[in-house]
Design goal:
2 domains, two-stranded parallel ribbon, NADH Oxidase, globular, 307 residues, cytoplasm, cobalt, 4Fe-4S, alpha+beta, single chain, epoxyqueuosine reductase activity
Length: 307
């Protein structure tokens, strides 16, 4: 086994030990196919008020601008599908936000992995990315064979569906590169048909400014009245396009204790949500991604549904 193969096996084995679902590797370079798609998406204002999407256009498309001398983009999937979900007929929180904020959980794992790489292989320069820097996660995961881009624009994998987080290590280490898998959406349009706000404007294209996740999390102003009656009780994020996807029949519960929900979350009724105080909010969502909306933002979402 040559050095490149040995390093690749070492990294993939350790990633599995750290609890990642899978790990795929791509050659670091300019994302030629993504460039026109991203440009058109921005030109059509599908990013709504997410101004940050307009920044660092070059860095989004070229990892060597984020890590000088980068040779490999190592992509990881981490399952978050829960054992139990919220009760029926309540205000809904996206499954990914049930437990501890994934940024902390994954960053910790990636730092451990980077330290492991340095101990085992030597001086390797690299950076860990978890959805918080200008990196096109799904494009890299697709390139490295971890799945294909579904019509809802989420990454899909035959064995496990789509309820997972994507993260990367970009390193200046040469490794064995994986190849992309084929698209298995076929003629299915379940996600397009089910989207409550018709945000999936055509297969593989989501108008972010119409997406319930955007409206409940990213949008800082009032939710436009045109979405009245279309939010289907979602107050933080939305899982509709994933819930209806046939590939998610294969989702299995995660094994990450930090992703387990706060016990109070699953039993909350609509009435509990409507009467939530800032103290309760801070207690239940102390370490959760739900904190992103702040108490006022969550109240806005609840009040909008109650109108």
């Amino acid at each position: 086994m040559d050095k490149v193969q040995k390093h690749t096996t070492l990294i993939k084995t350790e990633a599995k030990r750290l609890g990642f679902l899978s790990c795929g590797i791509s050659k670091a370079g300019f994302l030629e196919q993504e460039a026109p798609r991203l440009e058109k998406w921005l030109d059509d204002s599908m990013h709504g008020e997410m101004q940050y999407m307009e920044n660092h256009f070059d860095k989004r498309l070229d990892p060597t601008k984020l890590v000088p001398g980068a040779k490999s983009v190592i992509s990881f999937l981490l399952n978050y599908f829960p054992k139990e979900t919220q009760k029926e007929n309540t205000f809904k929180v996206s499954k990914y936000a049930y437990g501890t904020d994934y940024h902390f959980v994954i960053k910790h794992k990636l730092k451990s992995l980077l330290n492991f790489i340095r101990e085992e292989i030597g001086e390797v320069h690299g950076r860990a990315f978890v959805d918080s820097a200008p990196v096109l996660d799904k494009a890299w995961a697709t390139k490295s064979g971890l799945g294909w881009m579904g019509k809802h624009s989420n990454l899909l994998t035959k064995e496990v569906g789509s309820f997972y987080f994507i993260a990367e290590l970009i390193v200046d280490l040469e490794l064995e590169y994986d190849s992309a898998v084929t698209d298995h959406c076929g003629t299915c349009t379940a996600c397009i048909d089910a989207c409550p706000t018709e945000a999936i404007v055509e297969p593989y294209v989501v108008d972010g400014s119409k997406c319930i996740s955007y409206l409940t999390i990213e949008l800082k102003n009032e939710i436009p009245s045109e979405f009245q009656g279309k939010m289907e009780d979602w107050i933080f994020g939305c899982d509709v396009c994933q819930d209806v996807c046939p590939w998610n029949r294969f989702s299995k519960p995660h094994r990450e204790p930090l992703f387990d929900p706060h016990p109070e979350l699953l039993s909350m009724t609509k009435n509990d949500w409507e009467e939530i105080t800032e103290d309760v909010f801070k207690r239940i969502f102390k370490k959760s991604a739900v904190k992103r909306t702040k108490f006022a933002g969550l109240k806005r979402n609840i009040d909008f549904l109650g109108k």
